[in-house]
C-alpha cells in the first residue's frame, strides 16, 4: 500500500522509494525488500515500469501507477483507515485495571 501511495505521488525508482520511506520513519525498508513487492504490483497491473537514462550511471527503472493501481490504493486506504480507527479506539479506551 505505501509503495503504491509513493508511486501515486510521482513516478519513482527503487532506491528513491527506499529513501523516501526511510525518511518517513520506515527504517527497516530496504531495496531487497521492495523489489519483490514492485514485481508483484507490476504483475497485477497496478504499476508499470519503464527505463530512464541516468547521467550518473546505467538507466534507472521507474514505476508509475496505473488506473487499476489507483483504484486498489483507494480500497486499501479505506481498509487501513477503518482498521487504524478501530485499533485507536481500543487503545484509547484502555483504563486502569484489567487490560485483557
What does this structure look like?
By secondary structure, this protein is α+β, with helices and mostly antiparallel strands. It has four helices and three strands, in the order H-E-H-H-E-E-H. It has a three-stranded antiparallel β-sheet. A hairpin with a 2-residue loop joins strand 2 and strand 3 (57-65).
Q: Report strand order across the widest sheet.
A: 1-3-2
Largest sheet: 3 strands, antiparallel
Order of helices and strands: HEHHEEH
Mean pLDDT: 91
Keywords:
100 residues, alpha+beta, Arc Repressor Mutant, subunit A, three-stranded antiparallel beta sheet, 57% helix
Care to give the gist of this entry?
By secondary structure, the protein is α+β, with helices and mostly antiparallel strands. It is built from four helices and three strands; from the N terminus they run αβααββα.
List the topology elements.
Blueprint: H1 2-9, E1 12-13, H2 14-23, H3 31-43, E2 47-54, E3 57-65, H4 67-92
Antiparallel strand pairs: 1-3, 2-3
Amino acid at each position: 500500500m505505501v509503495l503504491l501511495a509513493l508511486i501515486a505521488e510521482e513516478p519513482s525508482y527503487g532506491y528513491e522509494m527506499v529513501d523516501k520511506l526511510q525518511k518517513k520513519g520506515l527504517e527497516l525498508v530496504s531495496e531487497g525488500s521492495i523489489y519483490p513487492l514492485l514485481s508483484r504490483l507490476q504483475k497485477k497491473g497496478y504499476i508499470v515500469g519503464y527505463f530512464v537514462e541516468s547521467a550518473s550511471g546505467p538507466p534507472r527503472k521507474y514505476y508509475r501507477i496505473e488506473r487499476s493501481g489507483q483504484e486498489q490504493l483507494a480500497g486499501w486506504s479505506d481498509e487501513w483507515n477503518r482498521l487504524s480507527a478501530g485499533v485507536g479506539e481500543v487503545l484509547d479506551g484502555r483504563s486502569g485495571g484489567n487490560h485483557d
